[in-house]
Design goal:
Layout lengths: L16 E4 L2 E11 L7 H24 L3 H24 L3 E7 L3 E6 L5 E6 L5 E5 L6 E6 L2 E5 L5 H20 L4
Antiparallel strand pairs: 1-2, 2-3, 3-4, 4-5, 6-7, 7-8
Length: about 180
């Protein structure tokens, strides 16, 4: 189940089911966390064209006044803005998947470079924590002395909402453990 209460459709079976070989596992909670990027590709293109136009016009003014080196710095500024946005978009490809099945709670983090790390927790023992720290809170999963911070890119409100949804799913799982 997703945090919004809907069923997650997973490949290989009915919604809310994972099929492995002959065993089918029910999915009790399934969420995909992604960083928010407010500027889409179209907006990025418009922004870069506008900045490029302004830089070109301003550079031409300085060029006509005889300050020709300034023209190159306007181009350099534009290049640096482009690189900064591209790096920001690259970091936006980070994905964290949190899935509670009949047997385990799995957190899978796919880094922007494609590398995947995975952690598994025993659902009965895992605790969801929302640590209030300055300047922002941290959402953690803890079990047997291990701690994993997730959703570092979420807003305060999103972390609290996600912690509540995952905590509720774990409570339902503990109340009627599969088996």
């Amino acid at each position: 189940m997703r945090p919004d209460g809907g069923q997650a459709a997973l490949p290989g079976g009915e919604p809310g089911t994972i099929v492995r070989g002959m065993d089918a596992e029910r999915v009790h909670f399934d969420a995909e966390l992604r960083p928010h990027r407010s500027l889409g590709r179209g907006g990025f293109l418009i922004l870069m064209l506008a900045l490029g136009g302004v830089s070109f016009v301003a550079g031409m003014v300085f060029l006509l006044m005889g300050a020709w080196p300034v023209f190159g710095f306007f181009g350099l500024d534009l290049l640096l803005v482009y690189i900064a946005f591209k790096l920001n978009y690259r970091s936006g490809r980070l994905v964290e998947t949190v899935r509670l099945t009949d047997r385990v709670l799995t957190v899978e983090r796919t880094m922007p470079n494609g590398r995947v790390r995975s952690w598994t927790f025993e659902p009965y023992w895992v605790r969801v924590g929302l640590e209030e720290a300055s300047p922002s809170s941290r959402l953690t999963l803890g079990s047997h002395g291990r701690r994993l911070t997730i959703g570092g890119f979420l807003t305060e409100e999103e972390r609290a909402e996600f912690a509540q949804a995952l905590g509720a799913a774990l409570a339902r799982w503990r109340a009627a453990p599969p088996g």
